[in-house]
């Protein structure tokens, strides 16, 4: 009789139509696959049931979060090797079940159901967000719930991962070996420079997080800042930092939806890593809201992750793992769509800078921080939540490095009635 590892390997190769590039170690101690390759460890037969009931990315993710699947060896190498079989061909893998006609494959599936234990599907790990349908996406209530799921997992946990800067967006690296704190400071200064911040101006920081951009702008550029977030934990942390910096007279932090801000106009608006939460159906509303909050001549810096465009955009589906465990209801769109909607709202787009490679470097540093503080991270959250963050950040690092997704800073202006932009004649001399 075949051992469990060989059965798993055989079935997966039959389903995917390609040799498995990783080794498999099953719960019975058996191994199969190429020697020396990273090893996919199947710690519990329940992981097999998860894959049988939910083939593809989500089944794998549930097994990983539950601790039933792991990697022995380099995680990045393992994910890179498997990406072509799972993440890049997820639809093919899921659709393969309907197309199976081979009696040997069906026999193998029946054998795996036997190996996997009870026929009923396992309950998802508790870290998975329970969905209430997608009919009311991106209402104020649903957005607050989604943001809370991602950000309200404990400020102490984020300190372990992000480091003292507490900046949860792409850093801006001088060299790959630069300190993370320096790279995050340079990113905040890059944003401030593009916005042309001057003493006495008023800045709106949309999705202000733990207050890092607000503090940098007020302390280094003498502006007054309103920062908004939907996370109560973030707001409390930011207010404490601001008080310690002696900047409470220049920075106000609110738990507020961007649609509820009515006390414009502002000289400048920064939106750093927030627009991914807006959703395609609400994006024009988001752009118009920010346009209405700017003074004529004011600038918007929109820093946002983008996906590659598809030949048929109507077939685009959100990433199942990230939607269930990381950013519920988050949506990525091509940068061209973002630029078009900003222009439709009235903005004149003046500059677009891709800093894709910088996000891969940033995510690898965050993963290293998490791994170096693993016992503390598990204690502060849960084993499953820590595994979610490790998988998500490592997989995203590879996605940026392989040009599956990118990140762009779009600088846009609200021109004066005369049509004057207030921008310098030469590009990227931001003053």
From TrEMBL:
Keywords: Lipid metabolism, Methyltransferase, S-adenosyl-L-methionine, Transferase. GO terms for molecular function: cyclopropane-fatty-acyl-phospholipid synthase activity. It is an enzyme of class 2 (transferase). It holds the Pfam family CMAS. GO terms for biological process: lipid biosynthetic process; methylation. Residues 157-398 form the Polyketide synthase-like methyltransferase domain. Coiled coil: none annotated. The active site is at 396. Its EC number is 2.1.1.79. Belongs to the CFA/CMAS family. This is Cyclopropane-fatty-acyl-phospholipid synthase.
């Amino acid at each position: 009789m075949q051992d469990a590892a060989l059965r798993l390997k055989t079935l997966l190769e039959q389903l995917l139509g390609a040799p498995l590039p990783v080794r498999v170690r099953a719960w019975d101690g058996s191994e199969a696959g190429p020697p020396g390759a990273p090893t996919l460890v199947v710690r519990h037969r329940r992981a097999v049931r998860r894959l049988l009931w939910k083939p593809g990315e989500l089944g794998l993710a549930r097994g990983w979060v539950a601790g039933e699947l792991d990697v022995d060896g380099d995680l990045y190498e393992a994910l890179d090797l498997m990406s072509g079989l799972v993440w890049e061909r997820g639809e093919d893998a899921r659709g393969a079940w309907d197309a199976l006609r081979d009696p040997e494959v069906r026999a193998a599936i029946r054998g795996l159901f036997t190996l996997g234990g009870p026929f009923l599907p396992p309950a998802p790990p508790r870290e998975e967000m329970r969905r209430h349908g997608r009919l009311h996406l991106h209402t104020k209530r649903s957005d607050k719930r989604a943001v809370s799921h991602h950000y309200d997992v404990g400020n102490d946990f984020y300190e372990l991962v992000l480091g003292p800067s507490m900046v949860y967006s792409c850093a801006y690296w001088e060299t790959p070996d630069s300190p993370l704190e320096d790279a995050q400071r340079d990113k905040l200064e890059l944003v401030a420079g593009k916005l042309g911040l001057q003493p006495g101006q008023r800045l709106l920081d949309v999705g202000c997080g733990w207050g890092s951009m607000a503090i940098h702008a007020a302390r280094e550029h003498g502006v007054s800042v309103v920062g908004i977030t939907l996370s109560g934990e973030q707001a409390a942390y930011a207010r404490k930092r601001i008080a310690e910096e002696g900047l409470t007279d220049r920075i106000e932090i609110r738990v507020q939806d961007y649609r509820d801000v009515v006390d414009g106009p502002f000289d400048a608006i920064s939106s750093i890593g927030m627009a991914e939460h807006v959703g395609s159906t609400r994006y024009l509303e988001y752009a118009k809201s920010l346009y209405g909050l700017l003074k004529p001549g004011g600038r918007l810096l929109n820093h946002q992750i983008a996906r590659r465009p598809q030949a048929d955009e109507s077939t685009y589906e959100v990433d199942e793992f990230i939607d269930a465990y990381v950013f519920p209801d988050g949506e990525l769109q091509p940068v061209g769509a973002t630029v078009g909607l900003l222009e439709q709202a009235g903005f004149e787009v003046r500059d677009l800078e891709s800093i894709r490679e910088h996000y891969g470097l940033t995510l690898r540093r965050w993963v290293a921080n998490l791994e170096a503080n693993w016992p503390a991270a598990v204690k502060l959250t849960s084993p499953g939540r820590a595994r979610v963050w490790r998988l998500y950040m490592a997989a995203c690092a590879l996605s940026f490095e392989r040009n599956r997704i990118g990140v762009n800073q779009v600088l846009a202006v609200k021109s004066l009635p005369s049509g004057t932009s207030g921008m310098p004649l030469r590009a990227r001399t931001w003053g």
